[in-house]
From TrEMBL:
Keyword Zinc-finger: no
Protein name in UniProt: Pherophorin domain-containing protein
Species this chain originates from: Edaphochlamys debaryana
A Pfam family annotated for this UniProt entry: DUF3707
InterPro entries listed in its UniProt record: Pherophorin
């Protein structure tokens, strides 16, 4: 009974320690995860265990969180947000998000993707991305499309491996208040974000010494110790009788069959100083996978024999016959399987050192990944929207991990004269996360928030100083299908100054341009900062989402451009799919 009480007390302490610190903030956008969402664990079944494990792998430092599902945790199932019943205790787990430092984002990348890889339930995920929030100093990294429902979450592990060459290659350098960390487990509707807090111990050595065990092959070789006497000893073992001397041509008795069965076998002969140590080495496999992202369907890439042949040819050229690899491997010549979404090949390394060196050669594995799928400068068009992965199956043997996200080419948008399309060229920007709210019983608003930022003039771009001083946002254009224009029921502006959405007329460009213009706006920086306006598209639930109304719905992105009145500045980018 005492043990049960201690376990329950520890459970209660863990839940208390992970309390909704962000939920009580006066302005929820200023606290992690820097969004308007329901944070307390008491409103959800999901949480992350407060203690994590950190290990060092050839690919970099890896930290794993154990995720929990506990029915007793949800004591406030009726929590609401913006007057809406979010039903957080009935939602799936969709996205893992973590608080990090701003300086951990590599220069000129905006953290998309972030220099890290992740696995969930032992399977590589889509890319790791970061996002920065204009209204605070907050920066996070997140992984989406983890969609798992209810009890299936219990005991699963989410693991994050930080690239060794990243600005913050360890958890200690990545998170703002090490050893304290904070993570949010989001639902698909982005209403529920239960926040878990915990601490992380110092990373253990990759191979901790064991003081109680002697090494297998000590040097110098140990001398044999005299045999111990058995419990019921027979008369002491005597040398062979002189009347029956052993023949010098015969071998001594085998140690497995001693002369006196009651006596223990003699000790093994000592190792000769000239005898080489037993060979080291290890066995492993490598998996090549094609994973869908952003709502793309499963792609059975390796059901096509030509794709398996390309993979085999690339592997043979870059790995099996590579002079830096070939002398140190056995096997790795025949793919055990090549079908559906994956292919696997197995073999062994002759030494542990060789396995570590080859497994950590990023250029080798990146080259294998690119060549195996037929890409040179970019992925084949049929792989757009998919993530390509090659990954080792044994962490301690030649572990390698290379991930490439195949993106769609930029669309023919915007359709205007030369302008500065740098995303940081003006003081205005659009948040890359599309949020939703009910418009009616049969329709939904899909909204993008207009924000301000500190411009970073690019001297090699057009009108750098003019765009940096842009005082007014005149219009925003969206790349949407002209053929589907009637599926957008209305366009509205929603801000903090008005209780109800303000309708605004739609202006469509010619059919070939596939462009919807929201104009004129004439918004200054003061209005944007004070009112946090959102541009919202009302879409009937029966026709899909706003992403289904783009010219490229399989991409699950919404492209947009912001303009000044003279159309010299046109910062262009896209939303993040399924963030």
């Amino acid at each position: 009974m005492g043990i049960k009480i201690l376990v329950l007390a520890a459970l209660a302490a863990a839940v208390s320690a992970q309390g909704p610190t962000a939920a009580s903030a006066r302005n929820p956008g200023l606290a992690f995860p820097y969004a308007s969402c329901i944070r307390p664990l008491s409103t959800s079944h999901y949480s992350a265990s407060p203690v994590v494990s950190t290990t060092v792998t050839p690919a970099g430092e890896r930290t794993c969180w154990t995720l929990r599902f506990r029915e007793e945790q949800c004591t406030k199932p009726d929590a609401t947000i913006n007057g809406k019943d979010a039903k957080c205790c009935e939602q799936a787990f969709h996205k893992f998000e973590m608080n990090i430092k701003y300086e951990c984002i590599p220069n000129n990348t905006f953290g998309r993707p972030f220099p890290a890889t992740a696995t969930f339930k032992g399977v590589p995920t889509k890319g790791v991305f970061s996002r920065r929030f204009q209204t605070s100093t907050g920066v996070t990294i997140f992984v989406s499309d983890l969609d798992t429902m209810g009890k299936a979450v219990e005991g699963t592990q989410f693991c994050l491996t930080l690239n060794k060459d990243s600005p913050c290659p360890t958890l200690a350098t990545l998170i703002p208040e090490f050893p304290k960390w904070s993570v949010a487990l989001w639902d698909p509707n982005h209403n529920c974000c239960p926040v878990s807090n915990g601490t992380n111990p110092s990373p253990p050595p990759s191979k901790p010494p064991s003081p109680r065990k002697a090494p297998r092959n000590p040097s110098p070789p140990r001398k044999p110790s005299p045999p111990r006497s058995p419990r019921n000893p027979s008369p002491p073992r005597k040398p062979p009788s002189p009347r029956k001397p052993p023949s010098p041509r015969k071998s001594p008795p085998s140690p497995r069959t001693p002369a006196n069965p009651m006596m223990p076998p003699p000790p093994a002969p000592p190792l000769s100083p000239n005898m080489p140590p037993p060979p080291s080495g290890c066995e492993t496999c490598y998996d090549f996978r094609v994973l869908p992202t952003g709502g793309r369907p499963v792609l059975n890439w390796f059901d096509d024999k030509a794709h398996c042949d390309r993979l085999n040819a690339t592997w043979y050229e870059l790995f099996v016959t590579n002079p830096s690899v070939a002398p140190f491997i056995n096997g790795f010549t025949v793919f055990e399987s090549c079908s559906g979404t994956s292919a696997r090949i197995c073999g062994s390394y002759k030494t542990d050192d060789a396995a570590t060196t080859i497994g950590s050669d990023e250029d080798l594995w990146n080259g294998l990944l690119i060549g195996a799928f037929g890409g040179i400068d970019q992925c084949p068009s049929e792989l757009a929207g998919y993530t390509l992965v090659v990954r080792g199956t044994v962490d301690t043997c030649g572990f390698a991990s290379s991930i490439s996200s195949c993106t769609f080419p930029n669309p023919p948008f915007p359709n205007c004269g030369p302008c500065n399309n740098n995303t940081l060229s003006t003081p205005f920007s659009l948040n890359q996360i599309v949020t939703t709210r009910a418009a009616s019983r049969t329709s939904t608003y899909y909204c993008v928030k207009v924000e301000t930022q500190t411009p970073v003039p690019n001297k090699n771009a057009l009108y750098p100083n003019y765009c940096a001083k842009m005082s007014e946002l005149y219009k925003v254009e969206f790349w949407l299908s002209w053929e589907r224009r009637w599926d957008i029921k209305s366009i509205a502006i929603i801000d903090e100054e008005s209780a109800t959405p303000r309708q605004i007329a739609a202006t469509w460009s010619p059919k070939a341009d596939n462009t919807l213009r929201v104009t004129p706006l004439r918004w200054g920086k003061a209005y944007v900062q004070d009112s946090a306006p959102k541009i919202c598209f009302e879409v009937l639930n029966s026709v899909g989402t706003i992403f289904d109304l783009t010219p490229r719905p399989e991409e699950s992105k919404l492209w947009f451009s912001l303009f000044d009145e003279n159309q010299r500045c046109c910062p262009t980018t896209t939303t993040i799919p399924n963030a």
